[in-house]
Amino acid sequence: MTRAVPAHLATIERHFAPDPPAILGVAVSGGGDSLALLHLLHDWRSAGGPELRVATVDHGLRLDAADEAAGVARICTGLDIPHDTLEWRGWDGTGNLPDRARRARYALLADWAQANAITDIALGHTEDDLAETFVMRLARGAGVDGLAAMRDRWRDGPVHRPLHGPLHGPVTFHRPLLDRGRAELRDLLRGRGVDWVEDPSNSDAKYERARVRERLSALAAAGLDAPALARTARRLAEARAALDHAARQAARECLRIEAGDVLMSRADLSALPDEVARRLLQAVLRWINGAEYPPRGAAMTRFLSAARAGQAMTLQGCLLHAGATWARIGREYKAVADLRVPACQVWDGRWRITGPALAGAEIAALGPAGLHACADWRASGLAHASALASPGLWRDGQLVAAPLVGWANGHELCLVRDGAFLFDAS
Fold first, then answer.
1. Beta bridge partner(s), residue 413
2. Do 229 and 269 have their domain in common?
């Protein structure tokens, strides 16, 4: 073991302290960063750390990909670590390949983890990745969120709340080596006689990250090397954390949930600093529509202005409407008008219905026909637009129950993403 290894292990142990998982998943591509992570985690396991299980994603984009995955499997066999290869064959030749591949990779890893009762996955991102990402986003004119250092951990993957029992998911991804450089990790592998694979895309100038890596050498000559850029990104991450904290506090003080809609005082919204208010509204939109990313830029600025001014606006499948003193954000009927799922499934990613089982029953939005069938729906106090988009139980084209507008008929609707999800995510 080289002299540097104890410092690396201390970094990893600090990251997972004070409660490391009993089993840790590891994403290993066969490249130098992830292989170094694997060997360091193996050292940690030998010193009393968690059990390990490895996954390699084969994107099917290069002829050598399957052989590289098999090579990782052989390494894991030598280390006595279980290994699985996850295949993705979803590339159709259109769109942004790196982004599509990245999304697919995380989705496959999250599904793999949940199928194997793994709650945490370690990734081999380094300080160099942090610096490269900073430069790429700087070139796009990113703000605090974009320029802030990539998070050293985050939750991802599907959230499932069973009818009975605890909530399952999501998976937590970890980046325990963000303060370690790519070169030193490769030195560690050389010291152990371990070879790694170089992905050809890392030096292919048609990819943005490869171009940035080439130009970072010129920046380093001006004193802007990877450690310096990473330090700036970390300072911006501290600013992001402060803004996120302020938004969470504002959510608890200013927001109220009513029948799946979110209500807030316009006066409170106007009193908040713009950046905190934007984050608050972004969290509300994501809580309602389940989108992977919130809207940003000009669209988000217009939405904030509309909310403060008491104007109506739609954004990302959500509808903003307001009264004299309040603003309400709910689902836009158009976004769910054609959405139908069996009664046993979650509707719109957030509503589950319970009650007497009815063969062939479905959950769908009430729409005009549903409201016509509920003559007294106005007594519920729900706004017309919200009532239109609210879920009901249907069978053979007939409305069976509409709990949110006062016709429960023995059934109950509950939110899969409850208030805690909103307040914790703001």
1. 353
2. no
Residue 423 falls inside a structural domain: no
The tokens for 118 are 């793994």
Final residue before a domain boundary, out of 278, 311, 331: 331
Residue 18, CA distances (Å) to 15, 103, 160 in order: 9, 30, 27
3-state secondary structure of 312: coil
Residues 109, 58: contact at Cβ < 8 Å?
no
Q: pLDDT confidence of 161, banded at 50, 70, 90?
A: very low
- 48 pLDDT more than 60: yes
- The sign one gets for the Cα dihedral 54, 57, 62, 66 is positive
Specify burial of residue 403 (Cβ count, 10 A radius: 0-12, 13-18, 19+): buried
What does the pLDDT read at residue 170?
Answer: 78
Q: Which of 52, 54, 43, 46 is nearest to 5 (CA)?
A: 43
Show Cβ contacts of residue 365 under 8 Å, excluding neighbours closer than 6 positions. 333, 336, 337, 339, 388, 389, 390, 391, 392
Domain count, the chain: 3
Judge whether residue 160 has pLDDT over 50.
no
Residue 398 corresponds to which amino acid?
Q
* 407: DSSP letter: B
Q: Which residues contact 418 (CB under 8 A, 6 or more apart)?
A: none
Residue 178, token pair as written in the block? 């963000």
* 69/56 Cα distance (integer angstroms): 6
Q: What are phi and psi of 320, to 5 degrees?
A: -100, 125
Cα separation, 196 vs 29, whole angstroms = 9
Of 123, 143, 8, 2, residue with least CA distance to 56: 123
In angstroms, what CA-CA distances link 129 with 101, 194, 391, 402? Answer: 17, 22, 44, 50
Last residue of a domain, one of 201, 234, 267: 234
Residue 167 has pLDDT above 90, yes or no: no
Residue listed under structure tokens 């703001």 = 426
CA 86 – CA 237 distance, rounded (Å): 32
Task: List pLDDT tens digits, range 381-402.
Answer: 999 999 999 999 999 999 999 9
Q: How far apart are CA 312 and CA 289, in angstroms?
A: 18
Q: Where are the alpha helices (DSSP H) in 153-273?
A: 182-191, 208-221, 226-254, 266-271
